[in-house]
Write a structure and sequence with these properties.
single chain; alpha/beta; seven-stranded mixed beta sheet; two-stranded antiparallel ribbon; 5 helices; 9 strands; globular
């Protein structure tokens, strides 16, 4: 099955390093996609600067401006929908979303640990890597998964691992994990664009 060029929406809440990776992959023709909109959880994020430097449309939608998850999610997807988005990519997005029916199976996230371990509410960024170290894990890695109505619980698409090295701190481990994230997220997006992902309950089958 041929790979199609996907229209991506990218949602972020921080520095935008994952956004930058996707921008770079597209620019180097390693990923058949175009980023048609970027949504941030507030103005003034470093990720906003990265989006604007790449010539991408940026819109801030603040969780605090909406009374509940449902109305916040409606605002996010109401902005995304007119851009004819094929796939929504969460890229360090920290806000819970209600996924509308027309986007079911069309929202991905990347988490900086091997789910289902070290996921859930409040587990993001440096906290994740510190928890991995505190538990004495010998390996860590990243997980790309489809998004459902709960934090970090959707069906797993791709995982990549890396070692935890004696003497690591959270920052050193974060750097090593992010090197795997830079491979895993484009890989998952590419598989989606090729029509190779088939979801059966919690299991994502990848067609050869």
């Amino acid at each position: 099955m041929g790979e199609r060029t996907l229209n991506l929406a990218v949602l972020l809440s921080g520095s935008g390093t994952t956004l930058q990776n996707l921008v770079d992959q597209i620019r180097h023709n390693a990923l058949a996609a175009r980023i048609v909109c970027v949504v941030g959880s507030r103005d003034g994020l470093a990720g906003q600067g990265r989006a604007e430097a790449a010539g991408l449309a940026y819109r801030a939608i603040r969780r605090g401006d909406h009374g509940d998850v449902a109305s916040f999610s409606q605002a996010v997807f109401a902005h995304v929908r007119p851009h004819q988005v094929d796939l929504v990519c969460l890229a360090g997005w920290l806000c819970l979303l209600d996924i509308p029916d027309d986007f079911s199976g069309r929202v991905m996230n990347i988490h900086p640990a091997l789910l289902p371990s070290f996921g859930g509410k409040g587990m993001y960024g440096r906290r994740v890597h510190q928890a991995v170290l505190d538990h004495g894990c010998k390996v860590s890695g990243c997980t790309v998964h489809f998004v459902d109505q709960h934090y970090d619980s959707g069906p797993i698409i791709v995982q990549r691992t890396c070692p935890v090295v004696e003497g690591d701190d959270a920052d050193a481990l974060a750097h090593r994990v992010f090197e795997q994230e830079k491979i895993a997220y484009p890989q998952a997006i590419k598989l989606y664009g090729q029509g190779k992902l088939k979801v059966d309950g919690r299991i994502v089958h990848i067609d050869p």
